[in-house]
Amino acid sequence: MVVKTIITIPAWCSALPLYAEHMSNRRTMLTMTGLHRAVLRLTGGRLGRRLGSMPVINLTTRGRKSGELRTTILTVPHREPVPRPDGAAGARQESAPRDERLIVIASRGGDDLQPAWYLNLVAEPTVQVAQWGEHPRPYRARTADSDERARLWPLAVRAYRGYANYQAKTEREIPVVILEPLPPTARDEAVSN
């Protein structure tokens, strides 16, 4: 006998991204993150691994004040191959894991304050990134420079138009963050620290 589990998502859950466009309250954002984590946990990752076309990651930073590890859920509106040292994007070895630069947006829903995770990675750029069900890997985080932002921001807005609304709500320029996987030797060092 085969038993299938059917999970019915309440209609109000599909409207959550719409509410996110209008929020800037820290408590609301924490509630949304908690609900997202609960959906991931309750469904074993079958739901919530993507928001629209964007994959969801766990980003772990070290608290700039507390020194404690802090994990937040973020969407990745764009990913791209890591440039080779010679500057060419050439072919990869099939047996090597695919290393990609991940682009995340420090929007905080258009709030005038920077997200805490962003301030943490500015203070300590070595971070851990994991997708649901994967082991965290060390990455180096950095804020895109003006030329990179000019190229990446439209790609992020294409993936999620809400980012443009967030930028219109705030006077700060919303940072575009580039997460680059650390090379194997640096990964080993980052894990031991």
Please give a structural write-up.
This protein has about 190 residues and is an alpha+beta fold. Helix content is about 35%, strand content about 25%. It is built from 7 helices and 8 strands; from the N terminus they run αααβββββαββααβα. Strands 1, 2, 3, 4, 5, 6, 7 and 8 form an 8-stranded antiparallel beta sheet that branches. The longest helix has 17 residues, at about 25-40. The model is unreliable at about 1-10, about 20-25 and about 90-95 (pLDDT under 50).
Head-to-tail CA distance between termini: 50 Å
Largest sheet: 8 strands, antiparallel
- Going by CATH, the homologous superfamily would be Electron Transport, Fmn-binding Protein, Chain A
Low-confidence spans: pLDDT under 50, at least 5 residues? 1-12, 18-24, 90-97
Q: Percent range for helical residues?
A: 25-40%
Tell me, what's the shape?
globular
Spell the H/E element sequence: HHHEEEEEHEEHHEH
Secondary structural class:
alpha+beta
Total number of beta strands: 8
User: What oligomeric state is this?
Assistant: single chain
Strand content: 15-25%
Instruction: Assign the CATH topology.
Output: Pnp Oxidase, Chain A
Query: What is the average per-residue confidence, as pLDDT, rounded to a whole number?
Result: 78
Look at the structure and give the CATH class. Mainly Beta
What integer value in Å does the Rg equal? 18 Å
DSSP helix count?
A: 7
Counting structural domains, the number is 1
Any guess at the CATH architecture? Answer: Roll
